[in-house]
Design goal:
Blueprint: E1 7-11, H1 16-27, E2 31-38, H2 45-56, E3 61-66, H3 104-118, E4 123-125, H4 141-151, H5 156-159, E5 166-168, H6 176-185, H7 210-222
Parallel strand pairs: 1-2, 1-4, 2-3, 4-5
Helix pairs in contact: 1-6, 6-7
């Protein structure tokens, strides 16, 4: 009797980290069900990137959910507030930046958990990172561990069916360079991804927001150019 391939729900934003996380989930033997969000973000081009990544990785289940976080605002990504720009990574401050979207990963994980339960999946993957990141509180190991505990208290799958639910954050302690190297080994096409918080009308990255600068440094440390950034913007 053939054992069915386990399903993992993977949060797929269209960025570098989530694309790598999807590839890692596949490399671990999971069939991926990808979940993306159109949440009113100013960089909505990432939804198109997520679709392209899912297609390139032969993901047959991919849902794009609409939730309008612009109704709440409170972030440069969901309100009419300027995206912070810098000339180098060294200028990124230690405080939580204006690009933090209140409770975004909590909202996304809750919806991923709901889908995972209906798919009889015990595994959710997300590409949060606690090293080369912008200081978001919902990208820390403590947050991931706390949500996993919640998942095992709040679901029929865990309480009645005895299924242990796991939240996987394989990139949590990796630098951007380590993430890129792993993705390249797994065949991730980073030309399909997008990371910029404030791209132009055709999707060209600004090269100066926190996300662009961290991404650029990662590619520079690997020793290859970022396929999205013009040569003059490379570090």
């Amino acid at each position: 009797m053939t054992t069915p391939t386990p399903i993992a729900v993977v949060l797929l934003s269209g960025g570098l980290d989530s694309a790598t996380t999807l590839a890692i989930a596949q490399s671990r033997g999971f069939e991926v069900a990808a979940l993306s969000f159109r949440y009113g973000q100013r960089h909505a081009i990432e939804v198109d990137a997520a679709r392209k990544i899912a297609e390139s990785r032969h993901v047959t289940r991919h849902i794009v959910l609409d939730i309008d976080l612009r109704q709440f605002g409170g972030s440069a990504l969901t309100a009419n507030l300027p995206v912070p720009k810098h000339d180098s990574v060294d200028q990124i401050g230690a405080e939580i930046p204006l690009t933090y979207v209140p409770a975004r990963n909590t909202v996304f994980l809750a919806l991923a958990l709901a889908w995972a339960e209906t798919l009889s999946s015990s595994d959710i993957f997300l590409g949060v990172n606690a090293l080369d990141y912008s200081g978001y509180p919902d990208c820390r190991p403590e947050f991931v561990a706390a949500f996993e505990q919640l998942a095992n208290l709040a679901t029929k799958a865990a309480v009645q069916d005895g299924r242990r639910l796991q939240i996987h954050a394989p990139l949590i302690n990796w630098t951007k360079a380590q993430i890129i190297r792993q993705g390249l080994e797994l065949g991730v096409d980073y030309a399909l991804t997008t990371s910029c918080y404030d791209p132009d009308d055709v999707g060209q990255p600004c090269g100066r927001c926190d996300s662009c600068l961290l991404r650029l440094r990662g590619f520079a440390e690997v020793g290859i150019p970022d396929p999205l950034i013009r040569p003059a913007q490379q570090l």
